[in-house]
């Protein structure tokens, strides 16, 4: 198998062209099915076709650009939608890697019958629902969910949005796992671990599980001036004490990369002179070890029981979501590691992903792995999101080379 060489200038030029769709300050605003998002998707289809891939958009906005001459294939891609008023590389980089590596294999003449299909998934950023596109692509999205989903920002129904985007009535296509060796996705790290440790590449071992909880505290409203402290049943105060206790307890139980966040607190009636009778907080915990997530939840349940016993407010505990961690293919990780060692010896590490990615969905039906490049300053989901051109180019070449290594192995096996 000859070396597969990607073209750095073309890769960067296409990334900058994609950035122009929905450009906002130094970042991008390309929410799923917005006119800018759809224009970007149509441009990606055209770009794939120019490269010689057979490409079209399906009924959920996914695009799979197929190398129809290939007998052995890898799926490479990511998502092209963005968070609101966010960065230019999140998702976009992995999408353009897929296009560029697919092109490189086509230009090399689909060597040994090997090629790449480029994938662009819709709504990874969950404007309507988590992993809408990748779940649709593996048959994990039913029509009832499409009927009920709404845009989190605008409230528009998903059906209205699909109609507005010209996708209503189009067939949703599922990928056939038997066509592929597996799936590789590259992404910016979105944290500062690689930069802080001086590495240029991260090979993802697993994608964290995310547990989300709602805690509701009930007390009694009364006058904030005349009600003595001793007889108050202040739901707000109960919440604050509880949040403090969670922080203390979790600190003792956390593994090296466990993170937790109280992302939202609401008090009712929410007036300066009224003791709150209701308080509510959303708590999220992330880790890549199910045992760690389990012991955090057990600690939380223990604190709830303590609060109930101690009073003076009632507390309700609700599990909103519990996604388990997803392990990446060990075999694919090793291929990425070999490719990284050749091109960037001593400059890479293995690491878990603290963010969710389409790869965790695709991993349900075929081997999948991910490659990270550093985010400058660890900034993402913000217009300042950026990465060095050298790292962008290196990551793409390493991904292409990892596939070549996987192909050489499978040829030896046969
Ligand atoms: Zn992303």
Summary of the model, kept short:
The protein has 414 residues and is of the alpha/beta class. It is 37% helix and 24% strand. The protein contains 12 helices and 15 strands.
Structure description:
The chain is of the alpha/beta class. The chain is 37% helix and 24% strand. It has 12 helices and 15 strands. It has helices spanning 8-19, 35-51, 92-107, 132-137, 143-148, 158-164, 193-197, 235-253, 290-310, 330-343, 358-362, 389-413, and strands spanning 23-24, 27-28, 54-57, 63-66, 72-79, 114-121, 180-188, 201-207, 209-218, 259-268, 278-287, 314-323, 326-327, 348-353, 368-373. Strands 3, 4, 5, 6, 7, 8, 13, 14 and 15 form a 9-stranded mixed β-sheet that branches. Helix 1 runs antiparallel to helix 3 (92-107) and helix 8 (235-253) runs antiparallel to helix 9. It starts with 7 loop residues before the first helix and ends with a helix. It binds zinc ion. The site of zinc ion has 5 residues, from loops.
**SSE topology string:** HEEHEEEHEHHHEHEEHEEHEEHEHEH
Summarize the amount of helix as a percent range: 25-40%
**Mean pLDDT reading:** 96
Bound chemical compounds: zinc ion
Strand content: 15-25%
State the shape.
elongated
Could you tell me the number of beta strands? 15
Radius of gyration: 24 Å
């Amino acid at each position: 198998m000859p070396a597969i060489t990607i073209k750095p200038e073309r890769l960067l030029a296409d990334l900058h062209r994609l950035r122009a769709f929905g450009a906002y300050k130094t970042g991008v605003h390309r929410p799923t099915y917005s006119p800018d998002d759809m224009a970007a998707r149509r441009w990606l289809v055209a770009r794939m076709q120019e490269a010689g891939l057979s490409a079209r958009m399906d009924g959920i906005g996914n695009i799979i650009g197929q190398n129809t001459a290939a007998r052995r294939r890898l799926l490479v891609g990511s998502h092209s939608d963005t968070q609101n008023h966010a960065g230019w590389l999140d998702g976009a980089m992995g999408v353009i890697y897929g296009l560029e590596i697919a092109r490189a294999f086509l230009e090399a003449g689909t060597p040994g019958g090997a090629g790449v299909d480029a994938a662009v998934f819709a709504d990874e950023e969950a404007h309507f629902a988590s992993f809408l596109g990748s779940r649709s692509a593996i048959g994990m999205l039913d029509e009832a969910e499409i009927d009920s989903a709404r845009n989190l920002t605008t409230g528009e129904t998903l059906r209205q949005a699909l109609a507005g985007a010209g996708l209503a009535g189009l067939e949703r296509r599922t990928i056939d796992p038997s066509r592929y060796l597996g799936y590789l996705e590259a992404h910016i790290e979105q944290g500062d671990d690689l930069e802080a440790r001086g590495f240029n590449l991260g090979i993802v071992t697993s994608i964290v599980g995310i547990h989300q909880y709602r805690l509701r505290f009930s007390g009694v409203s009364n006058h904030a001036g005349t009600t003595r402290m001793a007889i108050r049943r202040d739901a707000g105060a109960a919440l604050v004490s509880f949040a403090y206790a969670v922080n203390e307890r979790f600190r003792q139980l956390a593994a090296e990369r466990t993170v937790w966040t109280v992302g939202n607190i609401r008090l009712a009636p929410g007036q300066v002179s009224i003791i709150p009778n209701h308080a509510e907080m959303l708590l999220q915990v992330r880790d890549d070890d199910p045992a760690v997530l389990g012991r955090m939840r057990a600690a939380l349940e223990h604190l709830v029981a303590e609060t109930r016993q101690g009073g003076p407010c009632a507390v309700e505990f609700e599990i909103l979501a519990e996604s388990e961690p997803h392990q990446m293919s060990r075999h694919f990780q090793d291929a990425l590691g070999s490719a990284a060692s050749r091109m960037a010896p001593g400059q890479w590490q293995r690491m878990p992903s603290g963010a969710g990615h389409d790869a965790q969905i695709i991993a349900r039906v075929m081997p999948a792995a991910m490659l990270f490049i550093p985010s400058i300053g660890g900034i993402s989901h913000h217009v300042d999101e950026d990465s060095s051109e050298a790292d962008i180019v290196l990551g793409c070449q390493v991904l292409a080379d990892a596939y070549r290594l996987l192909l050489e192995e499978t040829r030896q096996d046969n």
